[in-house]
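Ligand-bound model needed. NAP.
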Amino acid sequence: MTSLHPPTPDELTALRRRYRHERERRVRPDGPGQYLGAEAEFGFYAADPYVAEVAGREPLRDTVDVAVVGGGFGGILAGARLRRRGVERVRLIDKGGDFGGTWYWNRYPGVHCDIESHVYLPMLDETGYVPEWKYAPGEEIRRHAVRIARAHDLYADALFSTTVTALTWEESSGTWIVATDRGDAFRARYVVTGTGTMTEPKLPGIPGVQEFEGHTFHTSRWDYAYTGGTPRGGLTGLADKRVGVVGTGATGVQVIPVLAEDAGHVYVFQRTPSTVDVRGNRRTTARDVGADRDGWARERRENFLRIVSGEECGEDLVADGWTASAGLLEKLLPSFSRPDGDRGAFEAAYEIADAAKMNAMRDRVAREVADPETAERLKPWYRYACKRPTFSDLYYPAFNRDNVTLVDTADTHGIERVTGSGVVVGGTEYALDCLIFATGFSVGVSGVHSGKLPVRGRGGALLLDTWARDGVRTLHGFTSNGFPNLIRMGSLHNASSVNFTHILDEQAVHAAALVAAAEAAGALVEPSREAEDAWIALLAEGAPDHEWFHAECTPGYYNREGRGRPNGPTAYPHGAVAFHALLRRWRQESMDEALAPV
Ligand code: NAP
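Prediction:
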């Protein structure tokens, strides 16, 4: 277990200096511009490896009740909740060849849920499924997505290997025209979007990256035809290969130990080390989690949400690395704000707790990695949660193997150059047969909030144009005036949490209730300008104050590569628990605020 020892005042001063130094040597002037999207000549990095050939089909011109854009947990849950409300024709559309979203794409060796499966997997009460592991392997999660889809008959009308390219409101018919890259132009009376935020793989814009002549792919499109094996390992195709992995975020931390088992040699190109906390994965039984009681899963995930949202809670049912560090994670939440009282004392106490946690993280590296020089390079020097916390009991021991070499690239702002035969760092070329990018995803470049999917509402107005002109305008994040019967999922003006499937399920329940209310009233789902004004005013009142924290953090996607978070309200300021209560109350009392006469 990690031990927490509080720092002395001198240690704190030294830590501050060290954190500043580590941040400064990592911040790059090009910020998010340093990355390449997996498109054009890099488009092969995003191709679907799980569909051998996309079957041809006639373009659709029919009309459905609800089109749901996205077949990940957001879309599936929206579909399931709509079905439970008796909506008949629900059509989910997804770029992938099946349901699962992030769990469809990410099948790399070692892929596991990072959040306890009993709170992460949605609709456990409804489907009767009890996960077999405290942290489920990706395949179990993907199968659960399929289970929910099957249980709610979502396959019947689904469109796979299909990307929605435009949504256009047609006033005369009171329907949305849904256009896709397969030539479809069908109509839907309602549209629900669950398009996710981190769906597009990104690559580092390293000079020469297109010149590598060996085998290369992104972790979210794992090439088992080349590596052999399965997500559980057995990558026999790599036995005699020199494999380079770029990236040591949540994905790298899971994939590197499996590669280390099977590959001839693994070179880990690290720019910033992750915090890697104790995992303690284990098999679980229904009894362990109290799954013999009705509503056990709802109760457990509510308990988890309360704890990680900093709410009072008598008992910690999940009791893991997330709940243990809940106090330190609060600073990531929209609800986080410094108290009005003695801010100095508050920040000082926070800093001490943070330093104690990070000391424990660094102590763990020193204990588990035999070579002191390698251990030193694996130590993270920033405040807790500057980067996505990760958990593994296999990661550090992997660096004790003879066939694993850690290559630290911090001094050169990452890899310097890719050549036809390998990777150059600090003037040394590392010859490679295979180069794997665990470099993550572009944030917010897909879906209705990105511009890649144009949404035209009343009078042909583009959603993003109206927001550029008037600021983001929504009621609860879901709906906007001028865009009738369009319901958007996601955290914008809504809620967020590390357990995002919980947020998505609450959103799905709400979306289905809106559709049902509009059907019953013979109305459109469309808030008034006044309802939007009131919501925006409420968001602005409690806009979060975590800029001070992110401004000092080492760069990453959490702080737009060191530039800090955008100003202004992006989510409900009083936390997910309060937001869900607000929605429940609002559904009972004020649902008509969201409806407009036909
Ligand atoms: P990520 O967190 O964005 O990490 C990308 C990695 O690539 C970082 O280590 C980054 O280094 C490195 N990198 C980027 N450019 C580089 C360059 N030029 N040279 C060397 N290294 C470079 O991506 P991810 O690990 O795929 O995780 C993305 C998110 O997916 C996570 O934060 C999490 O939300 C989710 N995820 C969840 C699970 C789960 O189990 N639930 C598992 C995996 C991922 P820097 O840190 O220096 O930028």
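Residues 343-368 form the longest helix (26 residues).
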